[in-house]
Amino acid sequence: MYRDDEIAEDTISTFKYSRAGLNAAGIHNIEQLTLLLEHPHQFKIIRKYQKPNFYKIDDSVQKQIGVFLDTETTGLSHHTNKILELGMIKFEYCKSGNVYRILDEFNGYQDPQEPIASHITELTGITDEMVKDQNIDPCAVGNFLEEVDIIIAHNAQFDRPFFEKMFPTIPKKAWGCSRADIDWKAEKIESQKLEYLAYKYNFFYEGHRAVIDCLAGLHILAQTLPISERPVLKDLLDSCHKTRSRIWAKYAPFDTKDLLKARGYRWSTHPTDNYKAWMIETYEDQLESELKYLCSDIYHAASINIPIQTINAYNRFI
């Protein structure tokens, strides 16, 4: 139960009431419940996540199979850090964005062959003893994903490089991101953190473990956006399947870095040529105007050869 105007983005505490707790707390809890009934507009009640048997049933609709994926890792860089835990939830969905049934779960630990940093254990709850001599079988992962049409992660820019580094032989799938592929700000939801989104959809969960994060993420995808009233998953599907152009502002003058950063460019490494440059992704209909901006405001030239990659759901987030 929350005062909606007192909620903090990173600190969400929960009043948990049980029948025994109410009897033990006595008059104090009764007064709180009375206050809730008298002033319902000042409070928000949320429930602990419970895995549903299904979301929708409709045998007349042609369904596809998706996977919500999450990794827990030894650190933030896929170049130097390793996966500790892989969780995946397989589910049915349709093109209109409806989620139907949860089909299967996958969970595996991986021994990183090095001690786990204390702050990682504190964050995830994963200890050296839990992962000792554990290995995630690539064949089992490949079989789990064999009939899957799309893989979704809440931060695919993080999870996909870790995943594909560890399982390079698994055939490429379309990827979507429940953080980047949904315009949460347009829905008046200012934070894209998974726990905060759960709060906005009236539930909480024990986070930072792979499978429960996947279940929570899928639960959010099965909801409706608060303003547009579109299925959340529909917004993601429409966005992730759009073709984009990745523009590399190679050799941009150093004194333009603040302009580029403010416009949405980020400092990145080119995936094949390995140079570093400011990069932005745009939709195809925005490509021409973005190139004009670079020529006029960044390079101050009538024309310049600017590297461009075509990005789709199969090669995105790499």
Strands, helices and their partners?
Elements: H1 19-25, H2 27-38, E1 47-48, E2 64-73, E3 83-93, E4 99-109, H3 118-124, H4 128-131, H5 138-144, E5 150-153, H6 156-166, E6 174-177, H7 194-200, E7 203-204, H8 210-221, H9 232-240, E8 244-249, H10 257-263, E9 266-269, E10 276-283, H11 287-299, E11 308-311
Parallel strand pairs: 1-7, 2-5, 5-6
Antiparallel strand pairs: 2-3, 3-4, 8-10, 8-11, 9-10
Helix pairs in contact: 7-8
Descriptive report:
With 318 residues, this protein is an alpha/beta fold. It folds into three domains: 4-45, no CATH class; 64-240, Ribonuclease H-like superfamily/Ribonuclease H (Nucleotidyltransferase, domain 5), CATH 3.30.420; 244-311. 30% of the residues lie in helices and 21% in strands. The chain is built from eleven helices and eleven strands. The protein has helices at 19-25, 27-38, 118-124, 128-131, 138-144, 156-166, 194-200, 210-221, 232-240, 257-263, 287-299; strands at 47-48, 64-73, 83-93, 99-109, 150-153, 174-177, 203-204, 244-249, 266-269, 276-283, 308-311. The strands form three sheets. Strands 4-3-2-5-6 form a five-stranded mixed β-sheet. The protein has a four-stranded antiparallel β-sheet with strand order 9-10-8-11, with helices on one face. It has a two-stranded parallel ribbon with strand order 1-7. Helix 7 (194-200) packs across helix 8 (210-221). The radius of gyration is 23 Å and the shape is globular.
